[in-house]
Amino acid sequence: MKAVVIHAAHDLRVEEREVPAPGRGQVGIAIGAGGICGSDLHYYHHGGFGAVRVKHPMVLGHEIAGTITSLGEGVEGWGVGDRVAVSPSLPCNKCEYCLKGLENHCLDMSFYGSAMRTPHVDGAFRQHLVAEATQCHRLSDGVTLAEGAFAEPLAVTLHAVARAGSLLGKRVLVTGSGPIGALCVVAARTHGAREIVVTDVADAPLAYARAVSADETINVATEAERLAAYGANKGSFDVMFEASGNTAAVGAGLNVLRPRSVLVQLGNGGDLGVPQSLAVSKEVDIRGSFRFHEEFGLAVDLINRRRVDVKTLLSATFPMEDAVAAFDLASDRQRSMKVQLTFA
After folding, report:
1. Torsion region of 186: left, alpha or beta (phi above 0 gives left; psi -120 to 50 gives alpha)
2. What is the C-alpha radius of gyration for the chain, rounded to an integer number of angstroms?
3. Do 132 and 188 lie in a common domain?
4. Distance between CA 153 and CA 296 in Å, rounded?
5. Which domain holds residue 197?
6. Is position 41 within any domain?
7. Is 309 exposed, middle or buried (0-12, 13-18, 19+ CB in 10 A)?
8. Among 47, 59, 62, 301, which is least packed, fewest CB within 10 Å?
9. Alpha carbons within 13 A on the beta-carbon side of 187
10. 200 and 251 fall within a common domain
11. Would you call the peptide bond into 119 cis, given omega within 30 degrees of 0 as the criterion?
């Protein structure tokens, strides 16, 4: 089979790999669609992020969906031909955090396409994948594999909503309108947000935010005063989802948050400067949000029931042989939102 493998920064190759066979409790899956994530782009452009570096060749990809082609011993409830979204998260279910229901903080986590451990965990940008049957979530008839591949990033934002607390009737600010920011709009709307305002420094990604129901979008590079106006009377927003990983966005957001509001940090751009005087004087709760666990099943269910529209965010699809072109396009925020690969 073929797989998309990162060797070093800007050294992305399509290589031959052995086709795996499923073991006990596992299924073989023909991958049909895979979305290029921000972390994939960090590996592509920089060879990693922060202290995490690629030390040896690694298959990329963790936003995937496909069709079951084979069953391992002991697998029940699944059949060849079933279409599934596959959670890339495989916690150990034995460590102290797993036993506390904090599986996303597992001490022995295997997460597709991650160089956080050595040897690295190969990802799922490949023609055939073996996964635990427990990682699979059935897709409804009529839901495409491309839509199913959105379950992972949607789960990230659903976890962020869980970290924020109730959004019912709340006014929400989203800073950064990349795929995660746009899906924050989807998740917040689904959970009852009354008003959602999205900011970015470019117009093109803001158009996608409007397409998924943002009430207002602001290009803070050209219209910073429009956001600043929300700072009257100590602020307007109850919850902020920071999806840019940019220090300026954090500061601008704190200026327009209400006292005792919640700031959920999703963007991971490195060390951010936080205006502590604002956070203290407004008694703002700052909460991190990392990956997901049970939210993956909810994401698939929302997609299956057509409660959310994710296909609006799909801007381009490439065959895996054109992976470099796909990664280059996914890196251009003026021309793309979510770029996916196919693996036929």
Report:
1. alpha
2. 20
3. no
4. 9
5. 155-288
6. yes
7. middle
8. 301
9. 32
10. yes
11. yes
Domain count, the chain: 2
Reported as a single tens digit per residue, the pLDDT across 211-253 is: 999 999 999 999 999 999 999 999 999 999 999 989 999 999 9
Q: Is residue 297 assigned to a domain?
A: no
The DSSP letter of residue 95 is S
Residue 123: both structure tokens together: 């990802």
Residues 182, 209: contact at Cβ < 8 Å? yes
- HSE (CB half, 13 Å, CA atoms) of 111? 20
Reading the block at residue 139, the tokens are 């897709």
* SS3 category, 264: strand
Alpha helices in 57-212 (DSSP H): 96-99, 145-148, 151-164, 179-190, 203-211
CA-based end-to-end distance of the chain: 10
pTM above 0.90, yes or no: yes
Say if 294 falls within a structural domain. Answer: no
Please indicate, yes or no, whether residues 143 and 14 belong to a single structural domain of this protein: yes
Read off the pLDDT of residues 19-42 as tens digits, 9 standing for 90 and up. 999 999 999 999 999 999 999 999
Q: Who's near 76: CB < 8 A, 6+ residues apart?
A: none
Amino acid at the residue 65: A
Asked if residues 310 and 155 have their Cβ atoms less than 8 Å apart, the reply is no
* Token digits of residue 288: 């991190």
Residue 303 domain flag: no
Looking at the structure, tell me whether residues 253 and 183 fall in a common domain.
Answer: yes
Of 173, 67, 62, the closest CA to residue 112 belongs to: 62
Instruction: Show the tokens assigned to 18.
Output: 């052995």
* pLDDT greater than 90 at residue 68: yes
Crossing angle, helix 295-304 and helix 151-164, to 10 degrees?
120
| The two three-digit tokens of residue 312, written as one number | 């609006």
